[in-house]
Amino acid sequence: MKITKLLVANRGEIAIRVMRTAREMGIKTVAVYSEADRNARHTQFADEAYLIGPPPSNQSYLLMDKIIEVAKACGADAIHPGYGFLSENAVFAQKVEANGIIFIGPTPESIDMMGDKLSAKQAAKKFNIPMVPGTDHAIVDVAEAKSVAAKAGYPILIKASAGGGGKGMRVVNNDEELEEQMHRAMSEALSAFGSDAVFIEKFVSSPRHIEIQVLADTQGNVVYLFERECSIQRRHQKLVEEAPSSVVSPEMRKAMGESAVNAAKACNYRGAGTVEFLVDADLNYYFLEMNTRLQVEHPVTEFITGLDLVREQILIAEGKPLSFTQEDLKIHGHAIELRVTAEDPTNNFLPDIGKLITYRRPQGHGIRVDDGYEEGMDIPIYYDPLLSKLIVHAATRELACKKMIRAIDDYKISGVATTLPFGKYVMQHHAFLSGQFDTKFIETYFTPDQLKSENVEEEKIAALMAIKVLEENGTATIATHAVNEERSKWKINRL
């Protein structure tokens, strides 16, 4: 079935990003928005926009029936959930399809299976995909937990079966800590996900977080679009992603890719999905989970493959087969993404909400900015603090790092603190440049003082430059010869 009108059940940069591809494909777009987003860019970009409720997401963007009601009323024949909100909600996917609307994503059954980490592990296990030692069933009994821990060896990781984002996770180092940490993990999981089911894994110290992008059509064809390195994280959430990984060999890439394809086959997957792995110091990889949606970091994969993943999602939803095979796919260059969030890296990455007084995007060859804001707009307190995704692409990893530094320097934001200075810190750090880093990068290397000292120095330079300009404007003489030596002749001749 040809999709003619698409409702995007999301907001911000991902809503705009989906709408852009839809528009290129000749598909009309529909936005939904909360009262806080009345003047948001995604509402202005869409062909149609409908108010669905007050600012809190549980009164707007999480209202399944309201969103479906809007889709039916405006004649939308498909819904794209983006990421976050309802994107991995099996009930929503089922309701969409029950109302005769195409859900651009996997089946409700696939979402349900992979949304629960325990059922995902059991499905992947059938294909002999490597697993971290631990349990493949929910645990509520402390005595059983101690028995599992004794076999796996401390430290262990207690994880919520449902959900993600670092919630319901506890590292336990010995028997004495186990009972308390287990109860805390269960309580947090129940509060966040509505289920207190937890399981235990051997804690892989200082792992790398590497994921594989997959695409699957409705004819049974599944391919992997190589890996993304996502090890630079805070609070178990990614900040910097790149493709390909600096440590993955062609042989390892093929093995991980085939494991990811098997994970997709295990749940009869369709559409775009991501299989996440932990990689230890010896480059052994272990299945972590499968995300049944488009990832925030999908642009780096688009850069190195030349594919538009949203376009592929839409074509798959229309029932079309993949137009390429695994052998057709090649890696072209290197891509890096920085999540530019309204967070203060000098204050434990806490959100810093306010007005965008200055907002100027970097430009140039191989630079992409996916965002949902403009200068003068307020950052709402109700949603994720992501301002934009800054993505660069170059022929080599070294050149991509240099391009990212230039792009960060050209990105002008004032009014809120952002992760831009942290991104520059990463791009210049020896551990990142050498490729020898893991998920403990921030914990091992980063201290807020390192950015504060840089900021002070930049402020000093800015102040000196301001004084210099004032002095020059207040005198009849242009400048001293010493200053002129640092200027180009072109600039001198303009005066």
How would you characterize the overall build of this protein?
A hairpin with an 8-residue loop joins strand 6 (156-160) and strand 7 (169-172). 45% of the residues are buried. The chain has helices at 12-24, 41-45, 64-74, 90-98, 108-115, 117-125, 142-152, 175-193, 250-266, 298-305, 309-317, 397-410, 420-428, 430-434, 441-445, 448-473, 481-484, 489-494; strands at 5-8, 28-34, 48-53, 78-80, 102-103, 156-160, 169-172, 198-202, 208-216, 222-234, 237-243, 271-279, 285-291, 334-341, 343-344, 350-351, 358-360, 367-371, 386-394, 412-414. The chain is globular. The chain is built from 18 helices and 20 strands. It is an alpha+beta fold and 495 residues long. The protein has four domains: 5-104, Rossmann fold; 133-202, 2-Layer Sandwich (Dna Ligase, domain 1); 208-450, 2-Layer Sandwich (D-amino Acid Aminotransferase, Chain A, domain 1), CATH 3.30.470; 455-494. The protein starts with a strand and ends with a helix.
